Structures
1.
Amino acid sequence: MYYGYFNGAIAPTDQLAIGVTDLSLLRGYGLFDYFLTYNGRPFQWDWYWERFQNSASRMHLPLPLGKDETYAVVMNLVERSNNAIRTSGLATPIDVGFRFVLTGGYSADSISVVRPNLLIMAEPIHPVPLVQYELGIKVILDDYVREMAEVKSTDYKRVILMAEAIRAARASDLLYQKGGEISELSRSNFFLVKGDRLITPDKHILHGITRKTIIQLAQSDFKVEERTVLLSELYDADEAFTTSSTKRVLPVTQIGDLTIGDGHVGPKSKFLLERFDELVKAW
């Protein structure tokens, strides 16, 4: 059993509910964030909070709780969720995912923001299958740029609408591009490796926390370039990978009909994944 928080109340997540006049339902107006705990501690909490705060500011949604209050709620939910798991017979504490959802709140005229609703949920972590790290994944190109890409809004209709096309291509995700410029995958950031250069787009993206972590970890071994990345650069890339909370460093070996490098997971992607895993193991 996992626990959540809603506007001051803590309860099992399946008992939490938002009313039907909330702007997230009526107008799709809301934002979220997602992170994991490692060894019982929120990963990169300061960075995640800063991003959540930035998203709220850009969406003109005042935060009901401050940083320290929210951290206390998170740790309370970690403890409650683990207590429930122990009661079910599992003795070893487990790490959890956290989903923050800040909505436009209840609105009498279906348009005005009065007081946002804050939902915080502890969730089970759904890891990427190991075979994808061994073989890499395929993605397909999509001529699209997310509106307000720097905000982690709840609007993910593009990838849902494209789900059938992704399945038909036997792919795992979309890689967004516009005018020949690459931005990001539908739920993660994108990197290319060329020799000792690590290249990642810097425009029309969500500034991922795993992305930021990898850039820091790579500084001593790579020349890191945050810049415009062109579609034409895919043809001579040695490796490609994507990063997110759940994907960590996940190799991309095919983009549409194009094979990246030699089609195998490259050593530098593996190296950065190992670096990341060492970091979180000691977190």
Note: The chain is about 30% helix and 30% strand.
2.
Amino acid sequence: MKPTLVTGASGFVGWHVARLLGERGHQVKALVRPQSRVRDLDVELVAGDLRDAASLARAVAGCALVFHVAADYRLWAPDPDELYRSNVDGTRNLLEAARQAGVERVVYTSTVGCIGIPKGGEGNEETPVSLDQMAGAYKRSKFMAEQVALEFARSGFPVVVVNPTAPVGDHDVKPTPTGKIIVDFLRGQMPAYIDTGLNVVDVRDVAQGEWLACERGVPGERYILGSENLTLARILETLARITGRKAPAVRLPYALAYAAGVVTTALARFTGRPPKAPLDAVRMAKKKMFVSPGKARRKLGYAPGPAEEALRRAVEWFEANGYAR
């Protein structure tokens, strides 16, 4: 069996994709930056960078499959252009290297942020959306990168796109913005909440969905990998039930959250340190990101489990690894 390349294996979703592939008997090559590590996995580390085309050509050589999971996932950066270089240019570099190497199939990991959300309803893969509707450099860069992936698919290169929602679970090392909600709750650093909502999914189900997309997905098609639509208040109530802690009772008006985003983000430009409330994150929170994973269920056989089990495992992992202190 030819090896399979996974980008982003040192990150949250990528780690779980690499773990699942290893369990399925794949010889996994993990593209990582020289300073990165991949904990607790038996994979071949390949040093490289999405912005370095030559390193990508070396990484994909001899591979049959590529799972492109890596992304610059920051809701604030001192230089927003870095996100475009990694997410947009890096995706184009990798797909071109994979095409030149004769890779048989690529699964590109996009984001639910690229899915259109109708007012008061659930979005799906067919909901109209445009670049103008993307708030901030992260979402804009991911939208543009998804368009690059779809362009390659239209040209005949077999690229399947998946759009994970808000994954939670174990091994969220960084942690992700969704994982940070859990960590802040565990530390008692969430005195209030805003009226927003997410589609929460077990990260292990996302990894399974990535494999199903590789196995059964149609090139050029998008598949939402999600589970349950939950308001932030409901998520916090669930965490309270799991931990025995109290959920915050104060709902912060959006205008006040926006003002905090403006102030803390402006301050970050002077300090160089990430803001406590990035303005782009506040803008994203104005809209409930409720979507339907129905297409993945029907077309891929995707069967995600309940969000509460994933939240419970995330809590246990964060507590066991010292994040709750």
Note: DSSP finds eleven helices and twelve strands in the chain.
